């Protein structure tokens, strides 16, 4: 009782598994975990039910900003706790913490723009890949990008390079692009993981099955643009689909007035 402890309530998609894996890696150099996972139980709760029982001992509902799967971690003296906070929209809800512990990943939307020349020959295969990855297409349109819209899709790094900036803008406005709004659990991160690095050569070196490795030619003609965060996905949905989406009622979209 002489030493203080730090009690943390953390949130992340797949929270229990991610924290357990992190703690295992941290302890491998000092102590081998038993098959029962008894060491893990001394520093974290392993299920939503245990999380709920332990969390209410230390926190009230007002202490939480809910929105993602939560878990509880008790960091003992001289232990280390890593907090993986979701980089998405933070929203307060009136429902109980236990509701969120059982809900799991939210159904989210993201935007995929298939750049000029990339979709006209490969659309059927791309749609098949999306279906295999459990994406639902809830919005689709052809669009000829205006220069100001193309500018908004470019990263800050590209904008700092005059030659690269001009090349990207010229290519994006050179023909018709296909814009898709996609829906599934953890949609934003899943799509970014499938696309891979913006340089097709780097994507090819990492994994030849990454989409930019398969359909990209250069850092400019790399096949795809995907929303890089939930905030950007909401911006892109409002930009490309101001008329709304053809998806079932979704709490996330209602909150963002999409």
UniProtKB/TrEMBL annotation:
What InterPro entries does this protein map onto? Answer: NDK-like_dom (IPR034907), NDK-like_dom_sf (IPR036850), TXND_domain-containing (IPR051766)
Tell me the ranges covered by the Nucleoside diphosphate kinase-like domain, including all copies.
Answer: 107-247
Looking up Pfam families in the UniProt record yields: NDK
Q: Which domain of life is it from?
A: Eukaryota
Q: Which protein family is named in the record?
A: Belongs to the NDK family.
Protein's name in the database:
TXND3 protein
């Amino acid at each position: 009782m002489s030493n203080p402890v730090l009690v943390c309530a953390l949130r992340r998609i797949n929270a229990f598994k991610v924290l357990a894996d992190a703690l295992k890696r941290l302890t491998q150099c000092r102590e081998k975990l038993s098959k029962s996972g008894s060491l893990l139980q001394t520093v974290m709760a392993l299920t939503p039910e245990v999380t709920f029982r332990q969390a209410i001992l230390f926190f009230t509902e007002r202490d939480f900003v809910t929105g993602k799967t939560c878990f509880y971690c008790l960091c003992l003296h001289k232990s280390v706790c890593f907090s993986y906070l979701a980089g998405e929209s933070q929203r307060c809800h009136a429902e109980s913490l236990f509701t969120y512990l059982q809900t799991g990943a939210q159904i989210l939307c993201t935007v995929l723009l298939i750049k000029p020349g990339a979709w006209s020959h490969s659309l059927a295969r791309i749609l098949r890949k999306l279906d295999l990855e459990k994406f639902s297409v809830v919005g689709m349109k052809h669009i000829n990008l205006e220069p100001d819209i193309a500018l908004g899709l470019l990263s800050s790094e590209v904008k700092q390079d005059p030659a690269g900036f001009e090349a990207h803008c010229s290519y994006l406005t050179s023909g018709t692009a296909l814009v898709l709004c996609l829906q599934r659990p953890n949609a934003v991160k899943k799509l970014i993981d499938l696309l891979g690095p913006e340089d097709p050569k780097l994507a090819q070196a990492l994994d030849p099955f990454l989409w930019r490795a398969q359909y990209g030619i250069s850092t400019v003609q790399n096949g795809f643009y995907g929303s890089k965060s939930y905030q950007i996905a909401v911006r892109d949905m409002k930009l490309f689909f101001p008329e709304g989406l053809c998806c079932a009622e979704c709490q996330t979209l209602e909150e963002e007035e999409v």
